[in-house]
Amino acid sequence: MNSDAFGYMAAGAALGLGAGLTPGPLLTLVLTQTFSHGTKEGAKVAFTPLLTDGPILCASFLAMSWMKTHPSVMGIISIVGAFVVTMFGYECFKTRAIAIPEMNIKPRSIKKGLLANYMNPHVYIFWATVGAPTAVRASESGLLAPSLFLSGFFVSLIGAKITVAYLAGRFRALLSSRTYLIIMRVLGLALFTFALFLLRDGLRFLNVIN
């Protein structure tokens, strides 16, 4: 595995972990389903990004294929992506202990997970400004790099949410502990680092730096 491919896999993993552990609609639903119906139902919700993100990713790829021949557009998107990832990192640092919802709701975890993800604007913003542009840049090195980037992202994203569901089911108190907050701070630093790389790429596309 070459260093570029490994770097893209690491970037995808960092983004996936950040997205997987940052409190939001889908993570809240994972917790809700877990405490209402057990770990299995929470895990079902965790898998829904595999179903929702595919069409969004394909549309973003089509747009990126055109934008790839317009460096100035790619530069602007990369800079916007750096801002978006910085906000994700900031959310990690802003995170406080999770308030576990106490709700008695019926199952249909997959359906609810699909709805929660499709209605979450962060999903569209991420793929349009960060995910698809990064995968397109990775494709310049061949098929391995973008494949590893996407694999790293989805494995980490889904794995993080499944882990949360498991911990919620087995060790509820841990999710309110200092351990969770430390993990979020570390992920925030990783996202800030990736944002700097995106900013660098954007400035290079715009010929501001070499």
TrEMBL record:
Give the membrane topology, semicolon-separated if more than one.
Multi-pass membrane protein
Which GO biological process entries does UniProt record here? amino acid transport
Q: Mind telling me which GO cellular component terms the entry cites?
A: plasma membrane
Pfam families given for it?
A: LysE
Q: Which UniProt keywords apply?
A: Cell membrane, Membrane, Transmembrane, Transmembrane helix
Which InterPro entries does the record match to this protein? LeuE-type
Name where it mostly resides. Answer: membrane
Where does it reside?
Cell membrane
Q: Which domain of life is it from?
A: Bacteria
**PANTHER family, per this entry?**
LYSINE EXPORTER PROTEIN (LYSE/YGGA) (PTHR38825), LYSINE TRANSPORTER LYSE (PTHR38825:SF2)
Q: What is the name of this protein?
A: Threonine/homoserine/homoserine lactone efflux protein
Membrane-crossing segments per the record: 6-31, 43-67, 73-93, 114-136, 148-168, 180-199
Which species? Desulfovibrio gilichinskyi
